[in-house]
Amino acid sequence: MTRDDFVRELYDHDTYTTPPGRVRPFPARHPLWASTKFHLRNLCSIIRTVRLVKREGFYYPKWPDASFEVVNTLEASGGRMEVSGFSNLVQAEQPTVYVCNHMSLLETFLLPIFLLEFSYVSFVVKESLIRYPVFGHITRASDPIAVSRENARQDLKQVLQRGEEKLQQGRSVAIFPQATRSVSFSHSAFNTLGAKLAEKNDTAVVPVAVRTDFLREGRIFKDFGMVDPSKPVCFSFGPAFKGDAKQMHGHVVDFITSQLREWDIPVRD
Asked: In 10 A of CB 184, how many CB atoms?
């Protein structure tokens, strides 16, 4: 399957589900083998992308191409992907603010294949990701908005200022308002940064619910845990919504919690 085939499926049907024939039976039954295959293939893809970034920069369609490689790696490692609500992205006025829950590094790899169909996107990321060995080259090249996650007031100022610059340039902004990655979802840990940025710039928010516990947190290296092929990777895009910050935040939280409950993911107040 090519990236064009994948995107055409989304436009034609609003959804994507990994066909049974693409799920490799051996890695699906053997998590250790699946984990090894996933991380080796992903590392090779990252190295190729870093070389590209250094040589040519990181522009469309190179970024979604790199994102789609992760889709193929996921399915080759016994994983399954389920996507719904793509038409909400098609109908959303651009640029917009995407607000997403955060389970693992996997969603940052996969979201560009969807979001870059409509406009360039700047992700709000932790400053430490910019300094990551190897992967940091890609993060910097994607023109992110970096925050410390240590000073909430300073982070708010940074997101509002830099986010406004990106939106005025015609870029959308994608933000993960949780303080840290978590399989469960906590209302109290999900801040209002995305909604405040959208209100300040009179734009809409698009809620994004993800389930990426396919990739577990590693004991030694956080981003290199085991994979669990029994758990599907799910993305669900909600309808765009415009209002005041409180209304938009409520819309995002309601959509994400509803989807997570459907996927049997724990939700806490």
From this structure: 13
Burial 17-39 (b: 16+ CB within 10 A, else e): ebeeeebbeebbeebebbbebbb
Tens-binned pLDDT, residue by residue, of the chain (269 aa): 899 999 999 999 999 999 987 777 777 778 888 899 999 999 898 888 888 877 777 666 788 898 999 999 999 999 999 999 999 999 999 999 999 999 998 999 999 999 999 989 999 988 777 777 666 777 777 788 988 777 778 888 888 999 999 999 999 999 999 878 888 888 888 999 999 999 999 999 999 999 999 998 766 566 678 999 999 999 999 999 999 999 999 999 999 999 999 999 999 87
pTM of the model: 0.92
Interior/surface letters 199-237, b for 16+ CB within 10 angstroms, e for the rest:
bbbebbbbbbbbbbbbbbbeeeeebbbbbebebbbbbbb
